[in-house]
Amino acid sequence: MTTEMDPTDQKAHRPKGHATKSIEPTVTKGTEACTVVTPPFYANWTCTRTDTLLLLLVTGVALIVRCWRLSVPNQVVFDEVHFGKFAGKYINGTYFYDLHPPLAKMMFAAAGKLAGYDGVFDFKSIGLDYAAAGVPYVGMRLLPAFLGALTVPATFAATRACGYRMDTALLASLL
User: Fold this and answer.
1) Using CA atoms, how far apart are residues 151 and 149, in angstroms rounded to an integer?
2) DSSP the chain
3) Nearest CA to 79 among 131, 45, 111, 126?
4) pLDDT tens, 143-161?
5) What is the pLDDT of residues 99-110, one digit of tens each?
6) Mind listing the pLDDT tens digit for each residue in 31-66?
7) Among residues 126, 152, 149, 3, which one has the least CA distance to residue 66?
């Protein structure tokens, strides 16, 4: 036995704990081929003092977890072989072809340049020693650690903005 749900019934689609206040989406008509629908769920959330404190707490925890012992090991690991190699090529202005989009590698090169990397270390293989070559690897590792930490408060804020309870947003952000 199947029951059909009314597609206009918003409560039937709402997850448990979701805000119960119903706000109609704003529809902006453009050309005949394009209709823009603005989702209404962001209108339900106002950042409370507790939200702000939890947001700061999860951000702090995320930064500590991702930056803890960032200097260990002091050798090339996993994708640093590829990202470091491309960073050196960007810094030195060497022409190369990479089939992947360049943004992440360009950001890694910028972080390396800001940290003092000169583009000479070749990142040939996993296990090469950074300390012996004088590579500022901690500064280069700091960018992905920081960007990864920013996903935590972004997840918390997005979950709360979608109308979920504070404990659900906290759990989602700590996953």
Assistant:
1) 5
2) ---PPPTT-HHHHPPTT------PPEEEE-STT-EEEE-SGGGG----HHHHHHHHHHHHHHHHHHHTTTT-S-B--TTHHHHHHHHHHHHHT-----SS-SHHHHHHHHHHHHHT--S-----STT-BHHHHT--HHHHHHHHHHHHHHHHHHHHHHHHHTT--HHHHHHHHH-
3) 126
4) 999 999 999 999 998 998 8
5) 888 898 899 899
6) 555 555 555 555 556 778 888 899 999 999 999 999
7) 149
pTM flag (> 0.70):
no
Q: CA 63 from chain center: how many Å?
A: 13
Helix (H) or strand (E) holding 60: helix 49-67
Cβ atoms 116, 128 nearer than 8 A: no
DSSP-assigned states of every residue in 17-28: T------PPEEE
